[in-house]
Task: structure prediction
Amino acid sequence: MPVPTERPPRAARPLIRPERRAAYRNRLIESRLTPNAISLTGAALNLLAAVLVTQDLWVLAGLSFVVGSVMDTLDGRYSRMSGKGTPFGAFLDSTLDRLEEGVVLAAVASHFAEEGRSLAVVAVVLAVLASLMVSYTRARAEALGVECKVGVATRPVRVVIIATGLLFEGLGLLDISMYVLAALSLFTVGQRIVHVRKALNAPPPRPPPRRNASAPMGYTPSLTLPSTRGLRTDVTPTNGNGAGPQRDGQVRVAILGVGNCASAFVQGVHFYRDADPAQAVPGLMHVDLGGYHVRDIEFTAAFDIDADKVGKDLGEAIWAGQNNTLKFADVPAKVGVEVHRGMTHDGLGKYLSQKIDKAPGQTADIAQILQDTQTDVVVSYLPVGSEQATKWYVEQVLEAGCGFVNCIPVFIAREDYWNKRFEKAGVPIVGDDIKSQVGATIVHRTLARLFGDRGVKMLRTSQLNVGGNMDFYNMLERERLESKKISKTNAVTSILDHELPADDVYIGPSDYVPWLTDRKWAHIRVEGQAFGDVPLNLEMKLEVWDSPNSAGIVIDAVRCCKLALDHGVGGQLDGPSSYLMKSPMHQRPDHLAREATERFIAEHAPDAQTAQAAQRAAEQAAKSPSAVEH
Result:
């Protein structure tokens, strides 16, 4: 009897199906394909379908219409998935959707007219008008703040009805499909009118609850504060997703990009974890900001693409790769946070790719990790010029329901489109482009304000910056500098009482000097016209360690974000953004920006003592009419 032999194990497949899908998705996202290209291709296919209708090629027309309409459906999904969407892209998509459907139906009406089927022509005309009204009622409702996606004849349903009529015209279904389309579209318009009327007459709904890890479901103790001047005195903590006041004592933070700035941020939290709240700390608004001490910041997740960092603990990764900032605090090598593989997109430019090896493997499920770690706030330290990567990460942040601190000059918080997205999601954002404690921009602003306060007319100015970190190396790729230059220039020129010609202002990074490591030299020159049109010129040099110079600002920003989350405040935080960022939605002189931020802290403080301290700080800021001494 033959001895049974053990069956050799099957060779493992290199990629299981979900991994293969993820690989294809990531390649697609990092390709040059844009949502607008998908929209335009869909439009071309629908125009082709209309031409085929005029030639009585019904099956081909139906197939062309189906494929074109599917592409119109996918462009929005791809836009959200890839982060490549723009406000204009959303506008173009909606416009083309209406045009494509109308063109195909116009061709069908022409066919009916040629055959003398007047009733069918009337049905097509009604279908066109009603389908436009379906879209119009939704747009008008959303302008009034009412979400309006109700109704039977939504875009996918209309596509199915039209496609059925085209593909089976030989069976006499085309005219029937037009009657059905007209009737259902008109009915949907009526549904939406009724829905909007009810929504506008109903009391405002409570936002969905924000998950609270530390409090059990249903935890809603009432907290009454002693009366303070001009402050909210009744706060009802709840658990919920931005739904209302809730506190769990921690600020859970995730980091995008574990470079020098992340290193300084992590070091700063450890350096000041035992700071006395009664003492002033250089670079922090308050040791205890709105009830959150520096030590309440807890790191929950980190993402990078550098092979030297991915897979390591955050405490080790902050010293890995090309990081070269100053060590000013002892950070444990194991803080219990793994650096996950992030999305590359346009985050790895021409010069960075010469220094950094991209980590193997697939992009981690960012949104799921943020949810699993119960992250409150995500801080973006992506490289300058990471336009598409930033927008992709913002989509993940919105999906996870986290606050966002945008430390780089990709304009998110100041843009109305993104601000509305954050407002709708009920989560806050502070941005864009972090200020330093005393950096080139803030010094340049102060000099510009000094000239204005003293009656000197600024004629021209320049700011030339050099440094030796990867930020400066990355910015050797001049194409990545546009938003950085805009951000720094606006931060300075917004303080002026008059507009300078573009050729008389140069503000921006200039060159990379490796031996400077994380130090930055800023050379500032201001040329002005004083009394009697006599020239008055000023030159100065500022030298700083670049990354620690902004770490305290980020510590304040994440705690402001957490306060907003506690109270269900969504969208751009106006005071904190104007004080902590170079390119907020609304620029203010720094003393007014600080006053607005202190008032924000006072309004959302958890107890009377903290609120009164912030209120006193706001009043002190208000008493300083200028950022400079006269």
